[in-house]
Amino acid sequence: MTFDPIAVRLEAARSVVRDAARLALSLRPAPGGPTGTLKGRQDYLTETDGAVEAFVSRRIQELFPEDGFQGEENGATRQGGFRWVVDPIDGTSNYARGRDRWCVSLGLLDGDKPVAGVIDAPALGEVFTAQKGKGAFLNGKPIKASPITNTQEAMIEMGWSARVTTETFNEKIAAIMALGAMPRSGGSGALALADVACGRSDGYLEIVIQLWDVAAALVILSEAGAAVSPFLQTGGLTGGATILAAAPGIAKALSAAVDVEI
Asked: EC number(s) on record (predicted)?
């Protein structure tokens, strides 16, 4: 039997992320006004973010000491051929209010290529996984992007960021609505991309998003057959960049409408 280092890492990641997600769930505040502090407008930081990132970093280092590691809170703390990228709580604004739409996201890159990912949303009871060339799954069942071809049937989510002007945001939302699509916003970039991968929504656009938000989702989207903009090639490896993911049947129309290459 041929040794597959990526498959070994993905299996380990499932366990690590599961335990991290359980930790986060146990620390989640009760529903109500937001807890934690603000790093910027609507950019929350809770004690759980740091605790989960430290937990994942420690476990990965124990299992794969030769691998690199990068987290949202502490940046790149280790270098290696394989690089793990974690968002300890994606959807922190939801988490901080005791809501359910948040997740722990852990992606694996081989150089600059996404090769595996796990997104665990424990309050929703959902785990998305994928390995390059092996398919994408939700709770162990294969997933595929939506088959729609008519934008007037489409549901498109757009993420909000304080780094984007109100004028730009409104322009893109108007372009989406002009297609006859229904706009949505759920507060978690990783889960929005996972929704595109499993066909729950037909597109997701965010003008400025970071690698840790999308590292796991990129391989899940690819394996599910979704169309995705060249995020890593347009600055996403080193800073904020735009991402557009779409059902393949409406990708061309959506790309043209919002003026983002796909």
From this structure: 3.1.3.25
